[in-house]
Dynactin subunit 3
Amino acid sequence: LSGQKAILLHCRKSVLYLRWIMTAPSPPSVCLQVADELVKVQVALNNIAGKRERIKILFKKIEDVIKYLDPQYIDRMAVPDAMKLQFILAEEQAIPVRAALLEQVKNLQPILDSTSIQAVPDHAAKLQRLSQIHIQQQEKRHDLTDSVKTLLEDYNKMTLLLSKQFVQWNEILTRLEVAKQAKPVAE
């Protein structure tokens, strides 16, 4: 029964320890008090655990779990240092180019901070308004173009009809003049 209590105490200690690590920073005095109490509990548990072999194995597994929960451990497992070194060496030729580009960006920073660039949002609103006006004017121009095209077509039709009418009148007058000249000769 005392072994089960020791396991229970150790589990509680581990939970408290994890909660303490994951919470927002507390005042230093509270952290020290909590740490002191955890050390006392750890010492008591180690004394109890020294007597039981199964508890030692359980403690070892809990320490492994804590180690595996460490974010740095996961990073080390995901990408080993040798692999990181290979990445860096593979990109060795591109690093000077990127450094030059970063230097260029740094040199151009005053331009990005200039009042002209800072005023772009204001200019964008004005440009939007001008774009709307331009679109409206294009629509009006299209309507006017259609209207002028219709008027020109009507003018051309009217001119054609008048030309045909004048040609007909000219033919009639020519026939009348020829007929008039032919009658006096016959008299």
Summary: Residues 128-186 form one domain.
